[in-house]
Amino acid sequence: MSYNQLRIAKIIQETPDARSFVLEVPPELAEKYRYRAGQFLTFRVPHADGTFNRCYSLSSAPETDGLPKVTIKRVAGGKGSNWFHDALKEGGMLDVLPPAGRFVLGEGDAPLLLFGGGSGITPMMALIKSALKGTRRIRLLYANRDRSSVIFDAEFEALAKAHPGRLEVIHHLDSTQGILKPEEIVAAMKGFEAGDVYLCGPGPFMSLVEQTLFAHGMPHEKVRIERFEASGNDAVPVEPSEEGDVIPGEITIHFEGKAHKVAYAKGQTILEAARAGGLNPLSSCEEGFCASCAAKTIKGKVVLAKNDIYTPDDLANNWILTCQGHCFGAEVEITYDVV
């Protein structure tokens, strides 16, 4: 996967500290940048200390929007968000990787229960616009600091009016209601107990919603979570946990249609081993919460030092994060080619 330059077609000031960036995709790159609602783009950001990557969710939906759009909230001290807000102008060019991410609508017509906090509303807007092209009922609980912080306020109002009985938006404002309480989350669940749940927002907000959902009977497999900030949990040291957990001297990596044998050493992640072996698989955050580096285990044992994205079902189906994956066993084989 490689970067391409995309032109900024339009910049929209959504709130005093949030902007949307609409991107032009040349016809020859249209297939490469085809995306699903809920996915994100990874941008290469220049900096005096060296370039770095930042992931930002698409707030557009391919079913309703002509051009892809990301929405970025300024974060105090944020190197990426401040560069987007201060340095970029319409007509400028951005280095962008193709769309990635698994925070997308599942199959079926189950109702959707969405919880968005602050700028975590960005992928929710995309999911809502996509789902409204079908028949699903949607309820969104959207928490913000105050009214001026509400991104897409007018757009949500217009969508609710255009789809009466299908889209319900519940606003929570800390400035007038205090911090979000568990009983508000429980109230939002009523009538949507059989729904699919999507959650994105600041860490404390997500922890509260997640704990409340599970405490009130929501099955773990029904909840999808998108994180774009570190959880605060440091990666734990990964050591052999069972008798016979040997460290392999090499591992097999399937990448771009070929099988590669690469050297492996204790303490290395699979991503580090792949790079040392001359491979260049896609990666973004490298902290276990974006799944850009997703792969599957074919053989052997892979232990994740940190995982802020995969459900128990995902893990049971052998999904791994190669930026967090450590290998054990005489033979270990993984594949990027299923992603």
Automatic annotation (TrEMBL):
Keywords: 2Fe-2S, FAD, Flavoprotein, Iron, Iron-sulfur, Metal-binding, Oxidoreductase. PROSITE patterns: 2FE2S_FER_1 (PS00197), 2FE2S_FER_2 (PS51085), FAD_FR (PS51384). It comes from the Bacteria. Its cofactor is FAD. Residues 249-339 form the 2Fe-2S ferredoxin-type domain. CDD domains: fer2, PA_degradation_oxidoreductase_like. Residues 1-106 form the FAD-binding FR-type domain. This is Ferredoxin--NADP reductase. The lineage of its organism: Bacteria, Pseudomonadati, Pseudomonadota, Alphaproteobacteria, Hyphomicrobiales.
